[in-house]
Design goal:
- The chain is mostly beta strands and 209 residues long.
- It folds into 2 domains: 3-112 and 166-201, Translation factors (Elongation Factor Tu (Ef-tu), domain 3), CATH 2.40.30; 113-161, no CATH class.
- The protein is built from 3 helices and 12 strands; from the N terminus they run E-E-E-H-E-H-E-E-E-E-H-E-E-E-E.
- Strand 1 (3-15) and strand 2 form a beta hairpin.
- The longest helix is centred in the first third of the chain and has 7 residues, at 61-67.
- The radius of gyration is 22 Å and the shape is globular.
Length: 209
Amino acid sequence: MKMLLGRKIQMTQISAPDGSVVPVTMVKVGAGVVTQVKNREQDGYVAVQLGWEEGSKHVSKGVAGHVKGALQRPKLRELRSDDVAAFSLGQKFDVSIFAPGDKIDVVGVSKGKGFAGVVKRHHFHGSPKTHGHKHDLRAAGSIGPTDPQRVLPGVRMPGRMGGERVTVSNQTIAKIDIEQGLLYIKGAVPGARNGLVMIYGEGEMKPKE
């Protein structure tokens, strides 16, 4: 079972064996440890809690007691899976569990875009540019029926865009630097620089119950 916690560094490019240029995202995976293994009997769901030595300088007493000295500045994330028998408390993890060519799923928090209209936020095509339309080219149009005379829940409207959990599936690991703890993932990865990302082996990610 392959699951990792890392921090997005930047996008760059590397050369493939055939001489082509491959765009990749660098992800730093530091020395980490399994801080808790949850099961359905005690916790109500199955998950592995991974800790990474990249958290805040100020650690609460509760978190410090929870990790029991295994990490000084812990950053904790839970990764859900159907089977956690391969994990044990205190187990170390690093990039060596993956290999170039492996397929992975990456989970991160997308960049915040601020307030956006429906054309940018929901990909509306907008109004016609002629035949009486002047100032409403990017307007949403009707937002409700005549009966009932109210706006129904779930109507796509302008609002804050981004800053949401995003999962990108079927990514490929292009290169691994074990000494530096770096993963080079082909293509883009959700989130801003220095954002935390969760990496699963393809098909091993389990949604929240």
